[in-house]
Design a protein that fits this description.
This protein has a three-stranded antiparallel sheet with strand order 3-2-5, with no helix packed on it. It has a two-stranded antiparallel ribbon with strand order 1-4. The chain has a two-stranded antiparallel ribbon with strand order 6-7. It has 397 residues and is an alpha+beta fold. Helix 2 crosses helix 8, helix 6 crosses helix 8 and helix 9 packs across helix 12. The protein is globular and about 60 Å long. A hairpin with a 6-residue loop joins strand 2 and strand 3. 46% of the residues are buried.
Length: 397
């Protein structure tokens, strides 16, 4: 293929992606509620319309998601939780949680995970080093609708990029381009506060090793900050990788977790009052929707539940500097950058922001700056009634 022909196809893909974004954005910001064009789901439900086989995968994945790991199964030697459900349980299994992980940076490394717990006799308990130069806490991200997010084509997300601010709106979002450990391919990251993973299998493998200490095919080596491989082997002599295929199903733990997350439904919107609908219009007009894009769309997918579906996540899944970064460089994200937090299910989520520093949306808005300074300033100039309308809209998500 010639360079010119390849470039033409690339441009066609980009323009087609922009058209999809524009069409779905128009639908989301019109008077028609997205809830009216989708099946209502409550927290923890599977995606509507699943086949019997997929529903069985969802239930089996949920059971593994809740399973409590034991030391003889590979737990540790350093860990933050004994099951996925420990961190993802509010307002239902698969949601956020109240366990915060700790990350530190030193002069030579960043986003080092400092585990909260260790297995007896605790010889491999990580601690904050004396040469730490930055410290951050992160709360778990909700997983509702994760399969829909995974099914958004990379080109759709990249069509929203504007790293050089060509349109002059002060917003310079860029995609997190990472190597997906599950496929070895260059992909657009979209999971995690730093958009550090692109697929649910990689996201599951990362969490299984880093949060529970269970090594797996994607992350086969034990990890605990400040300890060598030899020291970790003495603390956890189990043979790696510790996540093995179930002879009965042929599935690994990371496959089960991925199935559960992929088939987990998003939380449906609450009915919009006239006030909240006015707030939705304001959300767009003051510039919030530039980053918190109301709806994207999945691509062609072999699973009908994920095939060309709207994804009303209120995120562009890009990296931005909006003044709320945690000071940790990780994957493709700079220290001051963070992925646009999806707002679907917001009414069930407290606290807010990556470190839980804000209790309510109005507090979180005031934490914004830099790329988001213009939108925040316009919010602060709203009349009292308009401000309440916009907050009513946010509380409907």
């Amino acid at each position: 293929m010639s360079k010119h022909k390849g470039k033409s196809i690339e441009l066609l893909v980009k323009f087609a992606s922009i058209a999809v974004v524009s069409l779905t954005l128009t639908t989301a910001l019109s008077g028609q509620s997205l809830a009216a064009v989708s099946v209502s789901t409550k927290p923890g439900d599977p995606l509507p319309g699943l086949s019997a086989a997929d529903l069985a995968l969802f239930k089996s994945g949920l059971a593994d998601f809740l399973e409590v790991e034991e030391i003889d199964e590979g737990l540790g030697p350093a860990y933050n939780a004994t099951s996925c459900g420990v961190c993802h349980n509010l307002p239902a299994i698969g949601g956020m949680g109240q366990v915060s992980e700790i990350r530190v940076a030193t002069s030579s490394s960043s986003a080092n995970l400092i585990h909260l717990f260790s297995t007896p006799n605790h010889r491999c308990q990580p601690s904050i080093p004396p040469n730490a130069v930055a410290f951050a806490r992160r709360i778990p991200t909700p997983l509702f609708g994760a399969g829909l997010v995974e099914a958004i084509p990379d080109a759709v997300i990249r069509a929203l990029e504007d790293p050089r601010d060509r349109n002059g709106d002060g917003i310079t979002g860029r995609a997190s381009i990472i190597t997906d450990v599950a496929s070895g391919q260059q992909r657009v990251g979209r999971f995690g506060w730093k958009a550090q993973q692109a697929t649910l299998l990689a996201f599951a493998g990362d969490a299984y090793r880093n949060e529970m200490g269970i090594t797996n095919d994607l992350f086969p080596d034990e990890s605990a900050f400040g300890f060598t491989a030899a020291q970790l082997a003495l603390c956890d002599p189990a043979t790696d990788p510790e996540d093995r295929r179930d002879p009965a199903t042929g599935l690994r733990g990371i496959d089960q977790f991925s199935n559960f997350m992929r088939l987990l439904a998003p939380i449906s919107r609450a009915p919009l009052s006239n006030t909240a609908q006015h707030g939705a219009d304001l959300f767009n007009s003051i510039g919030c929707a530039t980053c918190h894009v109301p709806v994207l769309q999945t691509g062609s997918n072999a699973n009908p539940a994920l095939d060309r579906k709207p994804v009303p996540a209120f995120s562009d899944f890009l990296l931005h500097d909006v003044g709320t970064g945690d000071g940790m460089q990780q994957a493709a994200a700079a220290a001051n950058e963070i992925r646009t937090a999806p707002l679907w299910g917001l009414r069930f989520r407290r606290p807010l922001l990556h470190d839980g520093r804000s209790l309510y949306p109005v507090d979180a808005i005031q934490q914004h700056g830099n790329e988001a300074q213009g939108a925040k300033s316009r919010f602060n100039r709203l009349s009292s009634s308009d401000e309440q309308a916009l907050l009513a809209f946010l509380n409907s998500l």
